[in-house]
Amino acid sequence: MLHEVIRFTVLDIAIFEFNVNHTANKFFSCIVMSWDFFVPVCVGDLVKTGGINQYVVQDVVSPKQLPSHLNSFKAALRSQGPLCILEHFDTGYTVLQHCHKVDMSVKEDTLELLIQVVSGLSEQLNAVKMSVFLLCKLTEILESDSYRQSIVTAPSKGSKKGKAAGEGLLQWDSERETVLQALTQLLQLDIRSLWSLSLVEEEFISCVTCCCYKLLENPTISHVKNKPTRDAIIHLLGVQVKKYNHLLGASVKVIQLLQHFEQLSSVCAQAVSVWSTEYGVKAIVGEVMRSIGQKSSEELAREGSGVKAFSSFLSELGTLVPDTMIPNISVLLTHLEGESPSLRVAVCEVLGEVLVRVLSGDGLDESGRADRDRFMDTLQEHLHDTHSYVRARVLQVYTRIVNSKALPLNRYSEVMGLAVGRLMDKSINVVKSAIQLLAAFIAHNPYSCKLSSADLKKPLEKEMDKLRELRERLQENAPVAVIKASELWAAMEPELLLTVRAELEPTSEGEQQEREEDEVGEEDDRATAVQIAQFLRVNKYRNAVRLCVLAHSLFPESEMFSSLTTLTPETLLDTLALLFKGPDQDTSEIREDLPSTPQKERAGDGGKEGVEESELKKQEMLLQYLKDTESFALQVERAIAVINTMLYWKTTSVVQEAVQFCVTVCEFSVANSLTGVRKMLPLVWSTDAAIKDAVVQAYRRLYLNPQGDNTRAKAQTLVDSLSELMVDASLGTIQCLEEIVQEFFGGGSSLQSTVVQVLWERFTGKRETSSLHRRAAVLLLGMAARAEREVVLSNLDTLCSVALGEKLTEDFLLARDSVITICNITDHVRQCKGAPFRLPQDNQLFTCLTQAIAEGVVMADPHWQSFMEQAVRLLYFLSESPDQLCSRLLQRCSRLLLDQIAEGGEMLANKDVSQLPGASQDPEDCVSLAQLLSLCGCVAFWQVSHLERSVSTELRRRRGETEEREEKAKVPSRKQAANDSSVEEELGLMGASAEDTEAELIRKICETELLAEENLLCSFLPLLVRVCSSPGRYCHPQLTTAACLALSQYMMISPSVCEEHIRLLFTVLERSSLPVVRANAIIGLGDLTVRFPNILEPWTQNLYTRLSDENPAVRQTAVTVLTQLVLKDVLKVKGQVSEVAVLLIDPQTHIASLALNFFNELASKDNAIYNLLPDIISRLSDPERAMNEEDFHTIMKQLFSYITKERQTESLVEKLCQRFRTAKTERQWCDLAVSLSLLSMCERGLKRLQECWECYSDKLTETGVYQPLLSITAKLRRGAKPQLKVQVEEFEKRLTAVHTRGLENVESPEMETKRPEGAGSSQNTTHTPLPNKGRGGRPSVSSCHDDSFVTPKPTRKSSKKAVITFSSDEEEEEEDAVMAESETPKVTTPIARTSRRARLRH
């Protein structure tokens, strides 16, 4: 009973401190009130002797005794409640003192007890301070232990210990949230009343806040899993900021956290945002911003990572509370001029967020618009920032502004122009950001869904004419001058005042009587008022004043003159003003009896003029809108032209952005948008998977994901879009598109069957469509057949009847595309390992094809040639006996041609094919003969291909089947291990021998049978030779072209035919006056080089000669063919490549790009350009070439850009220096010096340059040599080490000394007299003898003789070429236009070739 009374008294005293009159517990109450607890700065301070009435810890027990004391603590908590902390504080303090010695279970028990105490306290000050102090300090200890344990156990990830540690960490995470919640609940209560005057001591607040900031220092606090803990800390600090005056402390602590913990930038931004919004403490945003804004450049330079944290913090805070940041944003603008690019970016991002979320829309006041314009100007300035990172991020800020539709319309054109300019930036990130901004401009443009400057021209001109008419109409109706009545009155008022005063002076009675007689004559007051106003308008002030004074006496009741009751100058002047100007605008009652003013008299016309003026304003606005739209479209088209060139950049990310931009502009129907879409199509073959995927996804988005209400509509849209892309597309574009369409049909789309049905309907003509779209439909069917052959194979009869039927000759292009579609089936079949898919000779398909070819020979259709080539190809792919079909076809065509000639009146006595009258000059006959020769050449080519591919493959297949049957038929016998190996070797030899036999059989057929006398192909060869060798007689361009190409195809048959006619083909190449003939000859010779490289190798120089042809088409063909031959290692790369280098400066841009592509590909081969450079320099600097210096520098600058290795640079320095010895002219010296200056010189290169001093020192008197070498020293000095700088300066002084000494010697008279005597000897010692005469000088530094660096002269003696003229006479004794035997190059270095067996395998 006594215990219960004591318990009640303790609780009563803890709640009511002022009640000290309780008699039962008077002594205990005196003990409680005899001391106060002060929160210590350091934990150890509590054991020291304190001040008066200050609590001091008395009982610090050992760790072994702690469990028993904790049990007592628990019992007291259950019996006495939270105030038991007053008795058991020392127990909790002991845990803090021995925190590193006690077990974790003891700490956890103590933590649980303290949480219960804190959760139950609210009104006893010492108890609150004691419990909060212990809880906060224990929390800090447990947090440190947890962090330390996580670091120690991190490596042992899979061990049991690691798992146990992980469970402990997880348990502490949950307990940590409980601690924070308990503290938050306590501080949310009104505990401030416990302190005197409600002034909470700073130490108590610091104890809680330090615990919170300690928890924030955890590196994982920003992780997603710790979000509850993070939110609890922020809310706990928010309570203290709002209720306990922690605003300044929080702002200072935020800055300190950002300086030392970069990862807390987002956490601090979130905290400040919560404090300013949920707790209403907006002032903290300004405090933090001012603290950052006051940081000087020196402080920021010292902080390092703190700058990044500040930047991230500001950017994050800008996204959370942009409106709160506006009042203090001026303190941040100073950092825009600072050195830190990250801070500049942060400020720009804050401005962007403010513009997007606050200063946007039409409802801004004048101050808001001014701030918006100021911020926009600031962002525009930093589009030209010195740091690329800032430029890129500002462009991204603008992208967000445009996507949010927050950019004012009047700034579209300006910002768009700046973005287009950034496309030329050196930084890849800036270029990517600029492309993204331009795409956003197009996607969110406020002008039109279709942007085309060409389409806008006519509407713009129409509206301009309309505006001009409106202005002319207004000018006709407008008065000459309109002056307001108030302005007139202000002008006349001074003079009128003088008149009024003069009239009001006393006058004689006679004068007064005169005035009355002169001025009286009006009947009513209104007429008198009009008369007074009229006098004032014509400047009759005296008459107006007199009449006004008289009118008051005549009409005393009139309101117009009522103010004149008291006649003074002021009242009289007011009355006159009222009569002249009319009533004021602000008067509520307008008197209708006043006279009309000049403005009122024009009121009738003013209504009409007002309507016209409003129409004029509307028209001006419309015209301005159209002008802005046109300007925007022009800038978009300018951007497209630049971005299209980026599709083939080496940077993958830029290419991806360019692809996305092309998709965007195509979706908005911008002019020339299809150019980029088609240009990026070849990237489907890119080796970079990211680029290929981007292109495939782009085409899938544009063409393969159609929109529609149903499946039929979607299929129709898909076919329409693909057909538009196919129209006028090149062969390369179609091949690339085929890859994408094939992927669509192979991907199992639900639209496949419907798309195929729509395509067949278009092709067959069931739906009215143009011929171009019919051709596109059949080509798309062929692309689908590559993925699924049944699409075409099951409808082969339809193809034959529609495209290859009776109307075939009406549209050879449709027939050609249909044949290409059928060939796609054969490509699929040929990949199979089984028996080849062939159709019998009497199939309707072959009947239609041969008939169309034969009929077309005697027709002058320009598209027959392309159809014939594809048809013959199909004959050899699908027919069982294509040679027989083509033999009959040639006979039929020859007979038709002879019949045509006979019908023309020129009958032939002998109708042998070899005696066809080539002298016939009838254009129709020449065209027919040309088409027949083209057919012969095509048949010859595909016959060889048929033998080496189809026949050879079939022989191998049959041999394999035979060997397989023989193996199965063999009876098993006893075999030993040795016999097994010998049998396998024998079988291997037999297989190789069989392949060689088959290859030899094919070669023999080509050599002996194809052009045998009984073969029809042989009959046309003399005609081909005759047409090619007699251009004067056979001068028809089409005939000559066809004969040249057919001859090159005939030469593919065998080496003997090639050797026999190679001189003739090169003669045509060099001497034909027709560019198309020369171009075709180059193509034919390129094929021959691949087939017979040893025969063509001596003629290589003749091929390179065509690179300097006068016709651009020939040069383009030559560089294309040579690029393929060199890159495929068919031709050896030699000094003739200098002719390709000359094309780098070709006036035709596409030719220069082909040459650049050649060297880009050649640079991928090891040391290829490095090995060629000395020879190229010698050839280009040859005086006979007489190349311009500027052109030489341009070429060399491009070529030297491929030299990136230091060892190559060092070696080239030596080689070029040695070339000074063999150079004969000053121009060559200068070119070599310029070449040296273009190298990326390094320390080793400088050393090599100094070692070769003797090679060029005597040339330094020339300014063209001295200046380039001097520029080398300037490049080396940049960023060089001190030791290298010394060497560079010494070398520079040496160069200058020699250069100056040479100039002084020239100027000295004595040296001029001595110079002629030694001139000869100096020349002999300066120039190195030619290599073919031998040279025994000292070896170079690279142990190579000088003769290895001199371009060797041609080994073939230059004999005088025979002059052959093309005559047009028809004599049979005409000399053939063929090179003489002496002009034929001899085989010098045969090229090793793979065996025919190896080639046939491929």
UniProtKB/TrEMBL annotation:
Domain Condensin complex subunit 1 C-terminal, which positions?
1076-1236
Domain Condensin complex subunit 1 N-terminal stretches: 117-250
Write out the entry's keywords from A to Z. Cell cycle, Cell division, Chromosome, Cytoplasm, DNA condensation, Mitosis, Nucleus, Phosphoprotein
Q: Which residue windows does the record flag with biased composition (Polar residues)?
A: 1320-1329
Q: Where is this region: Disordered?
A: 504-526, 586-613, 953-982, 1299-1402
Q: Which GO terms describe its molecular function?
A: histone binding
The family database entries (InterPro entries) matched by this protein are listed as: ARM-like, ARM-type_fold, CND1/NCAPD3, Cnd1_C, Condensin_cplx_su1, Condensin_cplx_su1_N
Biased composition range(s): Acidic residues: 514-525, 1368-1378
Composition bias, kind Basic and acidic residues: at what positions?
588-613, 953-970
Alphabetical GO CC annotations of the entry are: condensed chromosome, centromeric region; condensin complex; cytoplasm; nucleus
Q: Where in the cell is it found?
A: Chromosome; Cytoplasm; Nucleus
Listed under GO biological process in this entry are: cell division; meiotic chromosome condensation; mitotic chromosome condensation
The record ties this protein, via PANTHER family, to: CONDENSIN, CONDENSIN COMPLEX SUBUNIT 1
This molecule's function is given as: Regulatory subunit of the condensin complex, a complex required for conversion of interphase chromatin into mitotic-like condense chromosomes. The condensin complex probably introduces positive supercoils into relaxed DNA in the presence of type I topoisomerases and converts nicked DNA into positive knotted forms in the presence of type II topoisomerases.
**Family named by the database record:** Belongs to the CND1 (condensin subunit 1) family.
Mind telling me what this protein is named? Condensin complex subunit 1
Q: Which organism is it from?
A: Oncorhynchus mykiss (Rainbow trout)
